[in-house]
Structure formats: structure tokens, C-alpha cells
Amino acid sequence: MHIRFDQAELRYGDRVALKPLTLSLSEPRIGVIGLNGSGKTSFARLIAGLAKPSFGKVTLDGLDTVADEKAARAKTGFIFQNPGHQIILPVIREDVALGPKSRGLGAADVDRLVDETLARFGISDLAVRRPHELSGGELQLAALAAVCVNRPQMVIFDEPTNQLDLKNRAKVKAAIEGLVEQAMVISHDLDLVEDFPRVLVFHEGTLVFDGAGEDAIARYREIAGC
Ligand SMILES: Nc1ncnc2c1ncn2[C@@H]1O[C@H](COP(=O)(O)OP(=O)(O)OP(=O)(O)O)[C@@H](O)[C@H]1O
After folding, report:
1. What's in the keyword line of the UniProt record (predicted)?
2. Number of neighbouring beta carbons within 10 Å of residue 99
């Protein structure tokens, strides 16, 4: 998928979260790093159609995230910082089935697709669990299944390893590495994006570096002064 920002800006009232940005992206793995409040989530929300640019435009394969909202939104899936909040049905299996059902698939097709998707992420055994019975890493994978069942072209992760222990972190990292979909990863866990070909560094609402992972991390360390 080709993402294009054309002087796109995002304001919340008087506060400018993302200053006007012009940019093209199409790499299979894209990292986004920067200090707290630097505009990373705002940038990603514009891509996912969760926020509308206050000025300028964002297009995905030429589809405008505002004018072609529905088609553009279908291209991405967003995994929030607290994935437990996006699992809305009481049981994991039902939640993963929600997307295919709303697309009008018959019961047998929904069942098959849900089984395949749970198996793909190695969480078939979690099918009948409730979200509060899952660990942080399992919640990430369940949310990932619920997103990928809808066949987005890109999955956007907002701090996917936040608060995970080493074991769960490794599981989530492996799941991201194994994705056939494009992935954008916003992270303070720099190891996650170190090998990415393209990593964006934001600072105070501005894109201040755009390049390979190692170089981006070096730039971020300069900004952070450590
Ligand atoms: N809904 C909102 N209303 C008002 N201001 C907001 C809102 N969301 C974000 N902001 C502000 O916009 C700026 C950028 O926030 P954003 O969440 O994009 O940063 P971030 O880099 O993702 O931060 P973090 O690493 O802490 O998640 C911050 O100053 C933040 O306070």
C-alpha cells in the first residue's frame, strides 16, 4: 500500500499535534519513534482514518481518508496501546467473528475464517476465553487476529510491547515479523524497529528524521540526550 501525506496537519483545538507533513511511504515495515507527545499516534491515526486532517490530505493507494473514508479505512487495521479495550465481545472467538459477520459471510465461512485466523497466530486455545482471562501478549495476538481476519493491507501497532514481560514480548515481536501484511510499528521499545528499512522520528509534531532503523535510533538518542 502506498501512503501519501500532502501537507497534512492535525490539530486538537489550538494544539498542533502534527505539523503540515508531506511524505510518501510504501515499505513493508515502517517504524515510528520519538518522545512522548511528539505526534506519533496522531500521525498513525491519520493513516487509519481515526482522525481527519485539519488541513491537507492523506491518501492510501490514491483513496482519500476523508472523501473515500470507508474504502480507505478498510485498508488498515489498528492495534491500540490497550488492546483489551478493542475486544468488545465477551469471548475471543465471537470478537474475531465480528468483522466477517458484518461483511455478510455465511456461518460456515465465518467459522472457517475464524479458525484459520486463530490458528495463524497460534491462539486457537484462546477461542473460548474472555479478554480478562488473557495475558497482555495474548491480548495483543487476539486483537491482531480480530484485525487481520478483515484482510487489511497494513496493520498499525501502537506500542505493542508496552508492559509485556520478555516472553510475551518475544511472541509479539515474532508475530509482527511473520506478518504478510505491511506493518507500521510505533514503539518506545527500540529493538523492535532497529532492523526496519524505514523509521520515522517525530519531535514536537515534526518529522525530524526519515531513514534506516539504526540511524533513526541514533537521531532519537540525540534528541532525548541519552
Ligand atoms: N484527543 C486529544 N486532545 C487534545 N490533545 C491531544 C489529543 N491527543 C493527543 N493530543 C496532544 O497531541 C500531541 C501529540 O500526541 P500524540 O498522542 O500523537 O503523541 P505520541 O508521540 O503518540 O505520544 P506517546 O508516546 O506518549 O504515546 C500531544 O501534545 C498530546 O497531548
Report:
1. ATP-binding, Nucleotide-binding, Plasmid, Transport
2. 21
Atom of ligand 1 nearest to the CA of 159: 27
CA 56 vs CA 46, 95, 206, 223: distances in Å? 11, 35, 15, 28
Q: What's the grid cell of residue 111?
A: 467459522
- Residue among 38, 45, 50, 78 to mutate when testing ligand 1 (max atoms within 8 A of CB): 38
Q: What are phi and psi of 68, to 5 degrees?
A: -115, 45
User: Helices 136-148 and 166-178, interaxial angle, to 10°?
Assistant: 20
The grid coordinates of residue 215 equal 540511524
Residue-level pLDDT at 166: 94
C-alpha cell recorded at residue 133:
482471562
The interface pTM score, or ipTM, of the predicted complex is: 0.96
Number of H helices, E strands in the chain: 7, 10
| Residue 40, ligand 1, Cβ within 6 A | yes
**Which pLDDT value is given to residue 100?**
95
CA of 179 to the centre of ligand 1 (A): 28
Burial 194-216 (b: 16+ CB within 10 A, else e): eebebbbbbbebebbbeeebeeb
Does any ligand 1 atom lie closer than 6 A to the CB of residue 42? yes
